[in-house]
């Protein structure tokens, strides 16, 4: 009798084990099928680009609301939104540059955004050969402050229609770079359904910028015509760039040390903005920006303390050509705000999950600006 019961018990265990195996196989099959349905053709399923900076940028909706509400309460100026099609935004910590992010992104209302990012030296030190080329990614989603942000179909269009020698796809480069992700929380907060096309701009000389931007603008204009997209409202162009990094910590003492040197540096940066980044934007004006001198070459190929030395001229060359192709018009730059970390200091917001990733002092400070570009 005991042997019979023992046999029945063993059979029952085997049956349960078999049923569990079958159930596990079914779950795995369903997951595989679901993943294949969600993932766009040619891309791996469920790939979200990881956050690079969770200190200087905001990834919590409640914290973002506190930040935006505070900035709104402090804002005294009014800025024009009509005809806005592109902009330069800083990518420094929100507690430093919040007063520059807010008035710009409060003007933007769009369905898609192309974001031209920097390729910082930290990226190039790990990944060799990032030279005279655009860097795309193949993530399905990017992190946002209200939830994941979708990548536009434009990215696949670019991969299909751009000449292969003008771009590469490198997720690791995008993982290491913070200049594009910096803009997304503010962009999504004011445009909850926004889709993005992230483009990192690698170091390249002016002639290469002209060559690649001509091809990119042709493809962008073709895409916008096919989809009947209007610049500014349907598709917006963002250029991520901080300006100069000054002080002993950066070994950038072009104007000396101390407060007097800082005033000279600020005057120099304001001169760059008024001479090359505002007013009517032309190819000749952009070319002038890339040849500015201060003893040694200011915007030498690969050698400069300016974060925007490639993203700004390349982005402006591209936007200028796209707008001319689509509307037969030029673009006009209007300064929204210029400042620096030493002047701004840290916003007085505590315990909202934000911090700073670098100090500010006379030996370590960064200038930045927000500029809007309008149909002229």
Could you describe the 3D structure shown?
The chain is an alpha/beta fold. The chain has 2 domains: 1-38; 55-375, Protocatechuate 4,5-dioxygenase, Chain B (3-Layer(aba) Sandwich), CATH 3.40.830. Helices cover 43% and strands 18% of the residues. The protein has helices at 2-38, 61-74, 94-105, 121-126, 154-161, 171-176, 184-190, 206-227, 258-277, 283-289, 311-327, 341-344, and strands at 84-89, 112-118, 134-136, 141-142, 149-151, 167-169, 195-201, 235-240, 245-246, 279-281, 293-294, 296-297, 331-340, 365-375. The strands form 2 sheets. Strands 1, 2, 3, 4, 5, 6, 7, 8, 9, 10, 13 and 14 form a 12-stranded mixed β-sheet that branches. Strands 11-12 form a two-stranded antiparallel sheet. 40% of the residues are buried. Mean pLDDT is 88; it is low at 1-11, 15-46 and 293-301.
Key attributes of the depicted protein:
about 45% helix, alpha/beta, about 375 residues, Protocatechuate 4,5-dioxygenase, Chain B, disordered N terminus, twelve-stranded mixed sheet, globular
- Tell me the number of structural domains: 2
Can you say what the CATH homologous superfamily of the largest domain is?
LigB-like
Q: Major sheet, described briefly?
A: 12 strands, mixed
- In sequence order, what are the helices and strands, one letter per element? HHEHEHEEEHEHHEHEEHEHEEHEHE
Tell me the strand percentage band.
15-25%
- Write down how many β-strands occur, each being a DSSP E stretch of 2 or more residues: 14
Q: What is the CATH-assigned architecture of the largest domain?
A: 3-Layer(aba) Sandwich
Q: Specify the overall morphology.
A: globular
Structural class call reads alpha/beta
Total helices: the number is 12
Report how far apart the termini are. Answer: 96 Å
CATH topology descriptor of the largest domain:
Protocatechuate 4,5-dioxygenase, Chain B
Let me know the average pLDDT: 88
């Amino acid at each position: 009798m005991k042997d019979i019961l023992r046999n029945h018990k063993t059979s029952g265990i085997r049956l349960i084990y078999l049923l569990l195996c079958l159930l596990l196989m079914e779950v795995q099959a369903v997951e595989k099928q679901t993943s294949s349905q969600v993932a766009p053709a040619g891309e791996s399923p469920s790939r979200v680009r990881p956050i690079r900076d969770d200190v200087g940028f905001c990834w919590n909706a409640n914290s973002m609301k506190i930040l935006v509400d505070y900035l709104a309460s402090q804002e005294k100026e009014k800025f024009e939104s009509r005809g806005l099609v592109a902009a330069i935004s800083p990518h420094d910590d929100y507690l430093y540059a919040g007063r520059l992010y807010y008035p710009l992104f409060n003007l933007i209302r769009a369905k898609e955004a192309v974001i031209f990012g920097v390729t910082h030296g930290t990226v190039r030190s790990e990944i060799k050969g990032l030279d005279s080329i655009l860097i795309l990614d193949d993530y399905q989603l990017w992190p946002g402050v209200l939830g994941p942000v979708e990548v536009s179909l434009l990215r696949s269009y670019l991969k299909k229609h751009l000449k292969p020698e003008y771009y590469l796809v490198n997720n690791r480069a995008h993982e290491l770079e913070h200049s594009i992700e910096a803009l997304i929380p503010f962009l999504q907060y004011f445009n909850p359904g926004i889709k993005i096309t992230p483009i990192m701009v690698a170091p390249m000389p002016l002639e290469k910028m002209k060559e690649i931007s001509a091809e990119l603008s042709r493809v962008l204009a073709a895409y916008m015509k096919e989809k009947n997209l209007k610049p500014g409202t349907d598709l917006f162009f963002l250029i991520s760039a901080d300006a100069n990094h000054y002080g002993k910590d950066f070994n950038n003492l072009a104007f000396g040390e101390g407060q007097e040197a800082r005033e000279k540096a600020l005057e120099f940066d304001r001169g760059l903005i008024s001479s090359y980044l505002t007013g009517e934007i032309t190819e000749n004006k952009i070319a002038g920006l890339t040849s500015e001198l201060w003893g040694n070459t200011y915007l030498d190929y690969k050698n400069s303390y300016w974060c925007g030395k490639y993203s700004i001229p390349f982005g402006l060359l591209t936007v200028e050509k796209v707008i001319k192709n689509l509307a037969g018009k030029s673009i006009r730059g209007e300064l929204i705000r210029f400042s620096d970390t030493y002047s701004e200091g840290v916003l007085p917001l505590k315990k909202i999950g934000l911090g700073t990733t670098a100090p500010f002092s006379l030996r370590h400070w960064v200038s930045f600006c927000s500029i809007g570009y309008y149909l002229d």
